[in-house]
Amino acid sequence: xxxxxxxxxxxxxxxxxxxxxxxxxxxxxxxxxxxxxxxxxxxxxxxxxxxxxxxxxxxxxxxxxxxxxxxxxxxxxxxxxxxxxxxxxxxxxxxxxxxxxxxxxxxxxxxxxxxxxxxxxxxxxxxxxxxxxxxxxxxxxxxxxxxxxxxxxxxxxxxxxxxxxxxxxxxxxxxxxxxxxxxxxxxxxxxxxxxxxxxxxxxxxxxxxxxxxxxxxxxxxxxxxxxxxxxxxxxxxxxxxxxxxxxxxxxxxxxxxxxxxxxxxxxxxxxxxxxxxxxxxxxxxxxxxxxxxxxxxxxxxxxxxxxxxxxxxxxxxxxxxxxxxxxxxxxxxxxxxxxxxxxxxxxxxxxxxxxxxxxxxxxxxxxxxxxxxxxxxxxxxxxxxxxxxxxxxxxxxxxxxxxxxxxxxxxxxxxxxxxxxxxxxxxxxxxxxxxxxxx
Amino acid sequence: xxxxxxxxxxxxxxxxxxxxxxxxxxxxxxxxxxxxxxxxxxxxxxxxxxxxxxxxxxxxxxxxxxxxxxxxxxxxxxxxxxxxxxxxxxxxxxxxxxxxxxxxxxxxxxxxxxxxxxxxxxxxxxxxxxxxxxxxxxxxxxxxxxxxxxxxxxxxxx
Lengths: 439, 158
Known about the structure:
Structural class of chain A: alpha/beta
Shape of chain B: elongated
Order of helices and strands of chain A: HHHHEHHEHEHEHHEEEEHEEHEHHHHH
Number of strands of chain A: 11
Shape of chain A: globular
Radius of gyration of chain A: 22 Å
Distance between the termini of chain A: 46 Å
Number of helices of chain A: 17
Largest interface: A-B, 66 and 54 residues
Strand order of the largest sheet of chain B: 2-1-3-4
Number of helices of chain B: 7
Largest sheet of chain B: 4 strands, mixed
Helix content of chain B: 40-55%
Strand content of chain B: 5-15%
Strand order of the largest sheet of chain A: 8-7-11-9-10
Oligomer: heterodimer
Number of strands of chain B: 4
Radius of gyration of chain B: 17 Å
């Protein structure tokens, strides 16, 4: 299928970060269109498009905006989540490094639609080049009346502030992000109240993802019908559909790791074979992470799974997540892979909820023991117990980090159990090694 | 150990109008302090607390949550090099890269080389999986790394 990239159409063009080239390519016409509409009509357009948030949860963006109270007196905050930290995920990095104005235009449009008074772009510290690109782009916007007071004579005013994180995965959870923004430890909040009612600084707040902002720009520019013409329609009444283009990150054991933009719904197999040059070294895929490691694993038999908002769930994964695909070849031990994911979550658990703090730490310790040749078959049952008892779904934690920690364990032990059993009973030890150290 | 310079204090004060609460300037202030002194001293914590009208314990609470900030007993080297160990990098040799770099520089992750030139850290996903194995040098990502390249950077040869 031939698909011309839209979100990435300016990637690699000379000086693509500048306002001048962005305008020459038609930039900021979407904002002009939006400012000529009443804010509720902008929300309607985004709702009509079917856009679902690109940060991982896939909640309808327009619907989220309607949860703000009506006739708010005082400030409304728009927080843009640029804390992209889900392993395998780098689409927002490319968007901000290559085309910051497309994202910033979407922020102004979204701010106008939600009547936000201030926007905070929370950017992970690691993305220094994104920070500098955004800083420069924001300066250009102020100098050209695209930010600040009375934007383009519309009467709408907005400031955007960049706020840098400090290397903590939990800050990507929307209420963790808010706490971090407020200067506190990034402990997620119990919901409700949801941020729309009581968010940043105890005020009504919208939290949206970077790619979502780029989609908003294109929806206003090209129309909701264009967005609806791409992707996979609703499969049943409870499915809001999987519309629009999506940035798929591909990494791991493929010949051509990278970022590709395609309509939602490509299969994992097509993505690997047609867009990533196939599995490296002539090998085959043993397992594939469908959307960041929180989502679990597809087995080799499940590669025809559609990577839309419902496909990965049908295969027992947690969901589409960030659409970050990591390919694991047939020479790799799933024990090593699972150890890596468990260690990640043990490192990144914020420690607030005991089941998550202890469950992630113990799952990493058990996997380390198995890797050292000291595992028992009973360890696999213990791991399964942990995976069934930590998270929002079993109702034991405040945020979804633990569900993301549980899913790789559940999928690995269900889909690859014989490999784990063989590993333990044969007394194998890991061939890969680990450097001790602290951080 | 000394506190913040007047320049740093002014940078922090200049951020106050950007937020509706003074506490929100905590993280930016900690970044300013660490960039200046390669660590956040106790005195700097007290001074930040003064500017933000908070208890030093509140600043320290936030500081200690993020493994990012170093105290005065563990100042950073001239460059801070983070080696990614998350899945996409692990699959392409991230663990081996970290091990070789540590061995050649005679440090464990979290430590600074004897000449003070580089602090080596282990990192979780840096968001550059398209260029695995990747590293972060201060706040700049470097893709498709070899141990030789990382050691060169650490020794200030590249």
